[in-house]
Amino acid sequence: AKTTSTAKTSSTKPASKTTTTASTKTETLAPKYWIQAGSYSSKKNAEEARSALTAEKIASEIFTYTDANGTLFYRVRIGPYTTKSEAEYWQSKIAKIDTFASSSSYITSTTLD
């Protein structure tokens, strides 16, 4: 049996106006730097880590992340900072806190607004 496709390919083309708007917006966004102080499989451990930062007057947030295997992680992050050097300064402060002394915190950059 012969099958014929009746799908129209012309309807899948994006409007050029949308593409222009997207590329213009991307150019104006500045990167933001976050410090990931730790990543935990337990929400309770992430909340304890955030409490340790709060005790040192460092504001932080908990973000969730699911990896390719479906495992849920709770990431404790500080920021955002506008410059990498500012993030590095705070990363060195976090490394001096007992809770994070043995963890390997790192700086990540995003361009999300």
* Radius of gyration, CA atoms, in whole angstroms: 21 Å
Overall pLDDT level: 81
Strand order within the widest beta sheet: 2-3-1-4
Q: What class do helices, strands and sheet pairing give?
A: alpha+beta
Gross geometry: globular
Kindly state the number of beta strands.
Answer: 4
Helix content: 25-40%
Query: How much β-strand is present in the residues?
Result: 25-35%
Number of continuous helical runs: 3
Q: Care to describe what's here?
A:
With 113 residues, this protein is α+β, with helices and mostly antiparallel strands. It is 34% helix and 27% strand. The protein is built from 3 helices and 4 strands, in the order H-E-H-E-E-H-E. It has a 4-stranded antiparallel beta sheet with strand order 2-3-1-4, with helices on one face. The radius of gyration is 21 Å and the shape is globular. The termini are far apart. The model is unreliable at 5-26 (pLDDT under 50).
Write the layout of secondary structure elements.
Blueprint: H1 16-28, E1 32-40, H2 43-55, E2 61-66, E3 72-81, H3 84-95, E4 106-110
Antiparallel strand pairs: 1-3, 1-4, 2-3
Please provide a brief summary of the model:
The chain has 113 residues and is of the alpha+beta class.
Structural key phrases:
single chain, 113 residues, alpha+beta, four-stranded antiparallel β-sheet, 3 helices, 4 strands, 27% strand
